[in-house]
Design brief:
heterodimer; A: 289 residues; alpha+beta; Enolase-like, domain 1; 4-stranded antiparallel sheet; 12 strands; B: 158 residues; Ubiquitin-like (UB roll); DNA polymerase, domain 1; 5 helices; 5 strands; 35% helix
């Protein structure tokens, strides 16, 4: 497939990239490109200018700092997979990165791009909701921190301004007795989720759930927070009945569409089952089992 | 138009290209290296897999301008001095192909994988090649070919 013509620029600094974004209202940022380039090939997207940020140095860091895991905009999925820190302390993020597309795509695709693209079928948005993550948006004169709940604004839409660059993703460092899990039903490797559920929680000394985040993938116009399910479990000593009830609330609160991957009824039921299993797995991990 | 120079298998190829030119077309049409195949053209099949600075990526999902100044390896770069690489030998010995269309991509993914994991389990091999589709073999002999290559590489390192 031959894409439509576009101008191309490969700046080496963030200010240069921002100036280019300002110079053309039809500019688009090219990062890993594993979603954008297929869209351009199908001519579903026809940006006038591609601002390739891959040559900007210093954006490929993964570091624990000030209570956050800070992940730079050019960290690839494969970097997360290879990070001992992520594998050891961020099982939800590790699960999620392994379920994105396939190993070849993961060598290019970035976490920041996965969020900025804001496809409800992408895996990281639900995970970042579960973590209560933040993203850093860098603009010409100022950068701002956006809580993840204020970031997604519907189908392929975010609260980033056209001349802002998502430069960093911040995941809170887990408290003691924390655990998380991402469960995704996909028809085959590389397919989008029929549905996916991300859970992150921590237990107090008595074994009660202190904090819990639950995010849902591809069952709405954007990644959804299963708020009523979270509320049902927060402060509770988790038992089978309570987990089942929380899962039923997620089944009611999600908003899937019927498509080739399944009917609305099927997907709602899938959300119930995956929510239950993801909570159980997160608790097991929190207990160090 | 953008001037790009891309090193492929140790040789530099320079051309003036449109930014929209896909890397796979640069490899096939500007460098005349047609071992890299265009399969699905939609980031699914992995027939266009090449090594970009040592990492396997889908060359239908990159623009040639993005590879400016980079080092690529294609299937033509695997054999050294007329001698097949261990992975190529494995695919030959274990008959890891039928029609052969997916084979260049399959082998390049395997080369990068065995460098990272020289002692893989069958499950790890299947996971590693999960971004490369084969419509003929059912994968059994491909997995055998990768196992053969791993053994061969261990022998030659001893």
């Amino acid at each position: 497939m031959i894409p439509a013509q576009f101008e191309y620029a490969a700046p080496v600094s963030i200010p240069d990239a921002l100036a280019l974004l300002r110079s053309n209202p039809d500019a688009k940022i090219l990062s890993g490109g594993q979603s954008l380039i297929p869209l351009i090939k199908f001519r579903l997207a026809q940006p006038a200018l591609l601002v390739d940020i891959n040559n900007i140095g210093g954006l490929d860091y993964i570091r624990a700092q000030d209570g956050w895991l800070k992940i730079g905009a050019l960290v690839r999925e494969a970097d997360l997979e290879d990070s001992a820190l992520v594998r050891r302390s961020y099982p939800l993020l590790y699960d999620t990165t392994l379920s994105v597309a396939d190993p070849l795509v993961r060598n290019r695709a970035t976490l920041a791009g996965n969020l900025a693209h804001a496809d409800p079928a992408n895996d990281h948005p639900a995970t970042m909701l579960a973590y209560r993550a933040e993203v850093v948006a860098t603009g010409v004169n100022i950068s701002r921190v956006i809580p993840i709940d204020d970031f997604f604004r519907g189908l392929f839409a975010t609260s980033l301004a056209p001349d802002e660059l998502l430069t960093e993703v911040r995941v809170p460092m887990p408290k003691p007795r924390s655990g998380g899990a991402y469960l995704k039903m996909e028809r085959k490797v590389g397919d989008f989720a029929t549905a996916g559920v991300a859970v992150q929680l921590n237990l107090d000394a008595a074994g009660k759930i202190e904090q819990i985040g639950i995010g849902l993938t591809n069952v709405g116009l954007q990644a959804l927070r299963a708020k009523r399910s979270e509320d049902a479990l927060r402060g509770a000593l988790p038992d089978a009945k309570g987990i089942e009830r929380a899962a039923r609330l997620a089944q009611e609160d999600c908003d899937p569409a019927s498509d080739l991957r399944g009917s609305v009824e099927y997907k709602r039921n899938l959300v119930r089952v995956l929510t239950m299993r993801a909570i159980e797995k997160a608790i097991e991990r929190a207990k160090g089992m | 138009m953008e001037k790009v120079t891309i090193n492929i298998n140790g040789a530099d190829y320079s051309a003036e290209v449109e930014p929209r030119l896909l890397l796979v077309h640069f490899i096939r049409e500007n460098a005349n290296l047609t071992g890299t195949h265009v399969g699905c053209d939609t980031t699914s099949c992995g027939a266009c897999t090449i090594l970009l600075d040592g990492k396997p990526v889908k060359s239908c999902t990159m623009f040639a301008v993005q590879a400016n100044g980079k080092h690529l390896t294609t299937v033509e770069g695997l054999a050294q001095n007329g001698k097949l690489s261990p992975v190529q030998e494995g695919f030959h010995e274990k008959h890891g192909l039928q029609c052969g269309f997916c084979t260049p991509g399959m082998m390049l993914t395997s080369v990068a994988f065995l460098k990272k994991n020289p002692n893989p389990t069958e499950g790890e091999i299947r996971w590693a090649i999960s971004g490369n589709l084969c419509r003929c073999t059912g994968y059994v002999n491909i997995v055998e070919a990768v196992k053969y290559a791993a053994e061969k590489m261990k022998e030659s390192n001893q």
